[in-house]
Write a structure and sequence with these properties.
Largest sheet: 5 strands, parallel
Helix content: 40-55%
Strand order of the largest sheet: 2-1-3-4-5
Strand content: 15-25%
Structural class: alpha/beta
Number of strands: 5
Bound molecules: flavin mononucleotide
CATH class: Alpha Beta
Radius of gyration: 16 Å
Low-confidence stretches: none
Order of helices and strands: EHEHEHHEHEHH
Number of helices: 7
């Protein structure tokens, strides 16, 4: 199983990254191949609504940090999107990436892939509803199947780590991802 993990937090040791790293460990132990990308390390230009992806090769004509992200999204069987909640939504870098999904609405290259969300928020689940709904609608438009959503009340660096130590809820997500492949 190929798993691509996209981290939409600027904090490389933050809560999203902690959960993503643990998920990578669990999945890799079970034989999955995981690749992780930190969106803030990629120069992602905004979608400019040029509509060129609707014609010709049905690809984005902008050549930037999205190129490698596109390639690995297409490589993956399962795509993990992790973003902290910023003002009830995904981070700005995550939204830049989402807007650049537009070619996939036309070329259907993500159709049938499975996905999961990792959403830490200072206030926890209650502030994640808008983001969950946004991703659900994006996935529906692209034909992506949502496996699971992991929300977590976490604010400071180390909060996720501390909670994982008490109960490894990331293992539950990993098992769900692996189980569904067997169905
Ligand atoms: C600009 C900004 C806006 C935020 N807005 C929210 C919010 O609306 N609701 C919430 O629960 N937490 C909010 N937070 C807190 C983060 O979601 C929280 O600290 C999260 O654990 C950060 O994840 P990270 O460690 O992976 O970066 C906000 C943080 C920042 C920096």
């Amino acid at each position: 199983m190929h798993v691509a993990i996209f981290i939409g937090s600027p904090r490389t040791s933050g809560n999203t990254a902690t959960i993503a790293t643990r998920l990578d460990e669990h999945l890799s132990k079970s034989g999955a191949t995981c690749r992780t990308y930190y969106l803030y390390h990629h120069q992602i230009q905004p979608c400019i609504d040029c509509r060129r992806c609707k014609v010709d090769k049905q690809e984005c004509i902008q050549k930037d940090g999205m190129s490698v992200l596109y390639k690995n999204m297409e490589w993956a069987d399962v795509i993990i999107f992790g973003t902290p909640i910023y003002w009830f939504g995904p981070t700005a870098q995550t939204k830049l990436m989402i807007d650049r999904f537009r070619p996939y609405f036309v070329n259907k290259k993500l159709h049938g892939k499975r996905a999961a969300l990792i959403l830490p928020a200072g206030s926890g689940e209650g502030d994640c509803d808008i983001t969950i709904e946004q991703f659900k609608r994006v996935f529906k438009a692209l034909g992506v199947v949502l496996i699971d959503v992991l929300t977590l009340e976490a604010y400071d660096l180390g909060d996720a780590e501390e909670q994982i130590r008490k109960h490894d809820f990331v293992r539950d997500l990993a098992e769900k991802i692996l189980q569904e492949e067997e169905v």
